[in-house]
UniProtKB/TrEMBL annotation:
The keyword Transcription regulation applies. Keywords: DNA-binding, Transcription, Transcription regulation. It comes from Romanomermis culicivorax (Nematode worm). This is BHLH domain-containing protein. GO terms for molecular function: DNA-binding transcription factor activity, RNA polymerase II-specific; protein dimerization activity; RNA polymerase II cis-regulatory region sequence-specific DNA binding. Residues 28-80 form the BHLH domain. The keyword Glycosyltransferase does not apply. It holds the Pfam family HLH. Gene3D superfamilies: Helix-loop-helix DNA-binding domain (4.10.280.10).
Length: 92
């Protein structure tokens, strides 16, 4: 015996299946975006850690925020520029 499925039900099944496929794609896209953002944050944090190791502070192991690291790096670069300028002056 063969059971007939109405056109309406077939459309509902297809629509549900299509919706589930779209939802699955959306979830995969969201997961991929989250992974990319997490990797970007890791790279930013690694760059800040590297910069932190190059910037002197007192005490040397002082915990610094990203903002503090950037400000300290700016001051340090300016200081090095001043030293080079002074050395250039006295060398001439």
């Amino acid at each position: 015996m063969r059971i007939k499925v109405s056109h309406h039900r077939q459309h509902a099944y297809a629509s549900t299946s299509h919706h589930q496929t779209d939802l699955c794609r959306s979830i995969k896209k969201s997961v991929a975006q989250n992974l990319r953002e997490r990797q970007r944050q890791i790279n930013v944090n690694l760059a800040f850690a590297a910069l932190r190791n190059l910037v002197p502070s007192h005490p040397p192991d002082k915990k610094m925020s990203k903002h503090e690291i950037l400000r300290a790096a700016i001051r340090y670069i300016r200081l090095l520029g001043d030293i080079l300028g002074y050395m250039d002056k006295i060398g001439q």
